[in-house]
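Homework-ish question, so no full write-ups if that breaks the rules, but can someone show me the predicted structure for this set?
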Amino acid sequence: MLTKWLNYIVEKMEKVKDDNTEEQILDAAKTVFQSKGMDGARMQEIADKAGINKAMLHYYYRNKQLLFEAVFKNAFSLLAPQLNAILNDDSSIEEKIKNFTSNYISFVIKHPYLPNFIIQELNRNQDFVLKLKENKGFPNLDKFKKQVDTEVENGIIKPISAEQLFINILALNIFPFVAKPLVMALTNTNDKTYKNLMEERQIEVSNFIIHSIKNT
Amino acid sequence: MLTKWLNYIVEKMEKVKDDNTEEQILDAAKTVFQSKGMDGARMQEIADKAGINKAMLHYYYRNKQLLFEAVFKNAFSLLAPQLNAILNDDSSIEEKIKNFTSNYISFVIKHPYLPNFIIQELNRNQDFVLKLKENKGFPNLDKFKKQVDTEVENGIIKPISAEQLFINILALNIFPFVAKPLVMALTNTNDKTYKNLMEERQIEVSNFIIHSIKNT
DNA sequence: GTCTATAGCCAGATAGAC
DNA sequence: GTCTATCTGGCTATAGAC
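A: Not a homework solution, just the prediction itself:
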């Protein structure tokens, strides 16, 4: 009886240990893959960062490719809700722009390498796009399109296609983080002054867009 | 006498051959590095594409790192004039925006991987930034700043900092190409319809910016 | 200058003990 | 589940003949 109970406890503990290891690996892999990319990442570095050894990585994720895909899917599942917020909620276009712009910066502060990682790896491997699109919850423009068309018809905003507006919103928000080193060099800023620029943009960008499209 | 003359011809021919080989290597390296990145690129693939063998790559460029840097510098020296055009010529802000926007797309058609390559590799290796900034001809914002401030004071454009305006112009123009696979997935377009979107943007983008900043 | 052959290293993956 | 030790292949780089 005591033995049975002990076995149960041991199993439990192993289960917890497993979960921890698997998560620690994913966490370490996230850091390394997102900063070095698939090609630049080293399994050894991931193992070190997770506090285990290489063999464990293969035990849990079979190979580098699969570990990478786990990280990638996980990353995209964090970005998608950000995009769905602007596409699918019920506020006006103007409110959506304001909300997205101010939300996006806090998202990037939490996950600084994430947008660049996704963009870079989608460029490297076109097939990922297809896999992503199969998912439910993949951002869909339909509702946003209808809304833009309606607001244009009602004269609330100037004529513009939903696609172009959406691209503009993404570009103005995402680009300064993706191209940070380039933009820092061109604007001759350091980390501190660049951060100031980015904070200004939380208001600047939504004003910039709204000025452009709003009928007065 | 005849021998001397023959030697001269042979030397000439070898010189031409050298130049060709060196250029062919750089050309092949450009293609491979710009699509695969430093880490993903393989010397073998570059050699194959150049129609020579690996040993020649080392003969001309010593090692992968130096070959890569040659490609990178070359790439940036193509991008810099595009940026200097908007920063340093003498037309009005409005004209500059129109010109840059319509020029940039033909630049990208000629060099589709180039902007992404520069952004990506600057992210990977921060030191390149310092090296680039040492160059004469590195884009400088001073003149553009004065111009923006003047036009703001004169009430031609709405109050905006030169840095923010410059970032916006870059973002709206460069982002859709850098993030092409992502944006294609989100807007549910294929290569053909995406190209249409990009062609529309030649006018759309400059209108979008000018609407936003111009006083009426 | 150009080639073939190979050195030397390093990374991903596996075997097998515990 | 976790470890050490090792295999295997691939890649950069060089040696050396022509």
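Now go work out the reasoning yourself. Hint: The longest helix of chain B spans residues 2-40.
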